[in-house]
Design goal:
By secondary structure, this protein is of the alpha/beta class. It folds into two domains: about 130 residues, ATPase, nucleotide binding domain (Nucleotidyltransferase, domain 5); about 140 residues, ATPase, nucleotide binding domain (Nucleotidyltransferase, domain 5), CATH 3.30.420.
């Protein structure tokens, strides 16, 4: 009887599904809709994976009935909460077995080929995880409002804040701050207008049903601040003083995680995410062979974990 493994990299923007044989050779891969567990109680994620499963079996030329001989592993954005993962795993899936992980777990498995050590995601968001002597450790990943210290979103927000201070004459400006001001509206009034994602003149309902505008104060999404990172890198390569100042801030955040990894015996820290990999040459200068590039992408990590979890079934 054939055995298959299905891996899911469930992102907030899109969901990737891969079907592999018992030797982890990819048979087909498809992409579907958004799949963050915290969006609409996971319903869009359930639809994205269900549709993606049908699509990937069709693309592989494998009868859908073979889902009964398929073991699945989902790595999900919004999967930091234990309850969210458990509730999602309990849905009516057609597979022989299902395991739901936070997205950092599949990043870890892919980056280290299923082995031990640490991984950091340094992209629009950020998080860290390691496995050392069979013990799992996790830090960060709490989101833009209360965490994500190493992320492009946080660094972009700090860049926007520093730009506003420079425009006010409270801090020393630079060509970078002028470029950011021009990109976000030309002056502080323009930057303030940009910072609110919701039009302030809309009549919004509060939780108690009364009219109010509190929701308008949520502001720009993390990804909008992350879009400032290419501009930051452009000026960092020119040794812009503000770009260098923010590099020190970023490295300070990463230092904290390096110390955390080493405190529990991790011997390597793999770097996942666009911002982290762009910084990788600087990280190598700072940390030597303690840092490494990933062996495989997170989606392959999901397939690895599917086999590891269900190898004895």
């Amino acid at each position: 009887m054939p055995r298959y493994y299905l891996g899911v990299d469930g992102g907030g923007t899109n969901c990737r599904v891969r079907l592999a044989d018992e030797n982890l050779v990819t048979l087909a891969e498809v992409k579907n809709g958004r799949s963050n567990l915290q969006i609409d109680a996971g319903d869009p994620a359930y639809k994205a994976i269900s549709d993606g499963t049908r699509d990937v079996f069709k693309a592989a030329g494998v009868d859908f009935a073979e889902t009964a001989n398929t073991y699945a592993c989902f790595g999900m954005a919004g999967g930091r909460m234990d309850t969210a993962r458990a509730e999602f795993a309990a849905r009516p899936w057609p597979f022989a077995g299902v395991k739901v992980y936070d997205d950092i777990d599949i990043a870890h498995a892919g980056a280290l080929g299923g082995g031990e050590g640490g991984v950091v995601i340094i992209g629009t968001g950020s998080a860290a995880m390691s496995i050392v002597n069979g013990t799992r450790y996790q830090a960060g990943g709490w989101g833009f409002h209360i965490g994500d210290q190493m992320s492009g979103a946080i660094l972009g927000r700090e860049l926007a804040r520093y730009t506003v201070e420079a425009e006010d004459g409270l801090a020393e400006g630079s060509p970078l701050t002028k470029a950011v001001a021009n990109a976000l509206g030309g002056d502080n009034q323009g930057i303030m207008t940009w910072s609110f994602a919701t039009a302030m003149d809309l009549k919004l309902l509060s939780d108690d049903g009364s009219e109010g505008c509190d929701d308008a104060l949520i502001g720009r999404a993390p990804g909008e601040y992350g879009k400032l990172m290419p501009l930051w890198f452009d000026y960092l390569e020119q040794n812009d003083p503000v770009a260098l100042k923010l590099l020190d801030v970023q490295m300070g955040y990463i230092d904290t995680y390096v110390r955390w990894f080493k405190s529990h015996g991790a011997e390597v820290m793999a770097i996942v995410g666009g911002l982290g990999q762009r910084l990788f040459p600087r990280l190598t200068e700072r940390y030597g062979n303690f840092v490494a590039l990933p062996q495989f992408e997170p989606l392959h990590g999901a397939v690895i974990l599917a086999k590891q979890n269900f190898a004895s079934n």
